[in-house]
Amino acid sequence: MSDTSLIFTDCVASSLAGIIEKEKPKGIFIIADSNTSPLIARPLMDNCQALDSARLITVDAGDENKNIDALASIWSRLSAEGATRHSMVVNIGGGMVTDMGGFAAATFKRGVRCVNIPTTLLGAVDAALGGKTAVNFAGLKNEIGVFANPLAVIVNARFFATLPAAELLSGYAELLKHALLEGADALAEALDFDLSNPDYDRLQQLLERSIKVKQRIVAEDPHEHGIRKALNLGHTAAHAFESLAMEKDSPVPHGHAVAWGLVVDLVLSRMLKGLDTQILHAVASYVDTHYPSPSALCSDYDRLLQLMRHDKKNITADSINFTLLQAAGSPVIDCEVAPADITAAIDICRDLLHA
Amino acid sequence: MSDTSLIFTDCVASSLAGIIEKEKPKGIFIIADSNTSPLIARPLMDNCQALDSARLITVDAGDENKNIDALASIWSRLSAEGATRHSMVVNIGGGMVTDMGGFAAATFKRGVRCVNIPTTLLGAVDAALGGKTAVNFAGLKNEIGVFANPLAVIVNARFFATLPAAELLSGYAELLKHALLEGADALAEALDFDLSNPDYDRLQQLLERSIKVKQRIVAEDPHEHGIRKALNLGHTAAHAFESLAMEKDSPVPHGHAVAWGLVVDLVLSRMLKGLDTQILHAVASYVDTHYPSPSALCSDYDRLLQLMRHDKKNITADSINFTLLQAAGSPVIDCEVAPADITAAIDICRDLLHA
């Protein structure tokens, strides 16, 4: 798996033009969703001569459309418009677009180069970098996918200033996760940020620091055999919260589920790994202040456990695996946790977040 | 991409048991088609204690079923039966099964280990080794796939003694291709083999030599940026012959199309690269003796050119690329050939093969 260039810029058009000049792709295919297509992709195409002959493929927005049917529609367009393995795909959108567009590119004619331009904070911090591509399948998140690194990720923090507050919250949960993995200083800095009244210059600095935490961990272990599992902090519970919400036809943003999942994992870390209680309470209080409360009910616990057993990170279908923390910056991967401890932790999490 | 163990054996059950003992997969999923499932997979499961808890997933036989729907049905079964990324997939069948089962394994939860047990000569010589997985899409062969090496390929030449003659012909075309890429000695040996009255001990020796040609070339260039394209000898024309036959609802075996494609490429090699005419005529005569004649008509030439333009190996949709030979053992990759030369070569090929 080759390296990804990470580009921070005020001008996406010129950064992208530079990549195109260097790579000389035979055909450029831009994948965007019904939100980013008119707002970001079209204006970018109008302002970038290197995109003059690019084709735009628009998919319906929303994680519920990150599915096999939408994937097949991308493949069909690529095929019908004569894409070759020497073409280039440019994904413009949040994680839904970079996950699905990345998977389409990785599998079309066994692999076409792609560039990710995240348009959400969550996408920038999480999905755009690291090579995890996927679609949802059979009601399960990211069940089908491959590891395939993008050629480059182009990050323009200005995009995020125009996002609704909910989107910002969603991305910030992953930023908190990276801070927990980096150490006490990074965590204090992240918890000091006022999400209700964001300072975007400060956010950009936090963002660069945060993305580099992920880049460092992924470079050590691209295929997630070891330390990359640390990035799963909060995610075993988060995926279950998300899948449950999908089943109830009231999907929740990934980042909200991650914020709740982080609190579940910190409770477990306190219970099982001796994590300092102040860290748990500082994070729980921050999440409680800025995020909605978890939507899961006591009657959902059995289903949440079932969903966790399906998580890709689990060694067997009978065990449930978590990444936990001994301290900020000291993750412990592959922690098997008993179902009773998990339901206790969800219960405490719901209390802390006033659910 | 990690290496593949290549195992020649008289006892597939014990070889597979050895792999399972070493790898300790959490769950084994055998993928077979409606032919190999009762004839080979079931008896193997009955005779191999290591497969006691394995699940059998059977797909409809035939290349026309190597499609997204069948792929989704495999993913569904894996998902429903609790496969994890620590499970193992065992593909038992010809290229259709190893291509599609390999792709299913490579993409389920972003990648599950797999072992290929080819049950046809074609599968053993070609599809089972080399990491190319795929399904057909939008009427195009292998349009969607990834490179993902199997953990091991287990080859038992005894399987092929029970194959119908047509299957033997099909695999033998790829064996001829490897001989052309290896050199004059290997070619002479391959052309000396009596396909109408096969000696299976001799075939096993030829087979080992042949598979190792492919293994050597793939190891040099797993993702087909350079020398691996040599393995495309005969295949630009062959894929077009196959796609045309699919469009006409009278599919031809891959290996027959490859035999015709080899003759087309040798005609072009004679025309454009000075290949010795004796090699062209020796191969054409062997193909004419043992294989059916090409089914394409003069009126199909334009469509064949269109189909070649869609070939994954092409740099742009406007050019058509071939691997040609200067001599046996001396391939030249990335040869752009003019449409008029291609139709002339197809015409000469049809004459040589008495179509």
Would you kindly provide a written description of the structure presented here, covering whatever features stand out?
- Two copies of one chain form a homodimer.
- The first copy, chain A, is of the alpha/beta class and 355 residues long.
- Chain A has helices spanning 12-23, 36-46, 68-80, 95-107, 121-127, 158-161, 165-182, 184-191, 200-220, 235-247, 254-273, 277-290, 301-309, 339-352; strands at 5-8, 28-33, 55-59, 88-93, 113-118, 132-137, 140-147, 152-155, 321-327, 330-336.
- In chain A, strands 1-8-5-4-2-3 form a six-stranded parallel β-sheet, sandwiched between helices. A two-stranded antiparallel sheet of chain A has the order 6-7. A two-stranded antiparallel ribbon of chain A has the order 9-10.
- In chain A, helix 4 (95-107) crosses helix 5 (121-127) and helix 7 packs antiparallel against helix 8.
- The longest helix of chain A has 21 residues, at 200-220.
- Chain A is globular.
- The model of chain A has no long low-confidence stretch (mean pLDDT 93).
